[in-house]
Amino acid sequence: MTFSLGPKATSAGYRLAAFDKVGSTNAEAMARARTGERDPTWFVTTEQTAGRGRRQRVWIAPRGNLASSVLEVMDISPAVAATMGFAFGLAHATALQRVSVEANLRLAGADQLQYLLKWPNDILVRGQKLCGLLLEAEAVTDGRLAVVAGIGTNVIAAPEGTPTPATSLAALGVHVGAEELFAALSDAWVEFRGIWDNGRGFGEIRKLWLDRAFGVGEPVAIKTGTATVEGTFDTIDDTGCLIVRTAEGKRMPITAGEVYFGTAASLGAT
């Protein structure tokens, strides 16, 4: 089976660049933008050899896993572009829910899974990391912004020894292929990109994201450089910042950092 766009993505005019193996789908997408690509385009592979996560961490996708990135070139500011990641996370969580429901229909008695969004860029199942998202933006020659949203999904295998324990769809009993998941993702992205609407619909995206958010109301610790902020995960604001309510009742906006919930948070994210 080969990669193909879903029918909604095809109708919406998306293009597809599929690779047997590639270094990084995000890097490939941004390189195309620098050389003049302006059409919305997906870049996808089942084997990624030089992928990157946040803070330049290595993210390798062994053959059979899914690495996919979408390129959108828009006339928006970097601050607005940053909110696109929430819509993209929602699209992928929705695609995962849809394909796992289909898998459950094929496998009677399979447990229903919840795909939860961990701020700012992970999808968790049963507290374990299934996907990691990376959003990048760069100004291009016509004055617009090239925004690349990439996500790596553990379809058949998950790395070991990660800060947050990782899992895969196969380990969860969801037996779908990367190609099937990608087609569902490309269609779900059309839906959520439409809601997001170049940032104009972020209010609705924020509500939908909070409905799927991991850890709301729970203890949280965020490491930002050399400092650690501790409190309760209250919400996200209208710019996408995480709002922490401290023990003193102060609401602190967090723009970036390493987020720890539960026991890790109570120990000061050590």
UniProtKB/TrEMBL annotation:
The keyword Hydrolase does not apply. GO terms for cellular component: cytoplasm. InterPro entries: aa-tRNA-synth_II/BPL/LPL, Biotin_CoA_COase_ligase, BPL_C, BPL_LPL_catalytic, Transcriptional_repressor_C. One of its GO terms (molecular function) is biotin--[biotin carboxyl-carrier protein] ligase activity. Signal peptide: none annotated. It catalyses: biotin + L-lysyl-[protein] + ATP = N(6)-biotinyl-L-lysyl-[protein] + AMP + diphosphate + H(+). It is an enzyme of class 6 (ligase). CDD domains: BPL. It comes from the Bacteria. Keywords: ATP-binding, Biotin, Ligase, Nucleotide-binding. Its EC number is 6.3.4.15. This is biotin--[biotin carboxyl-carrier protein] ligase.
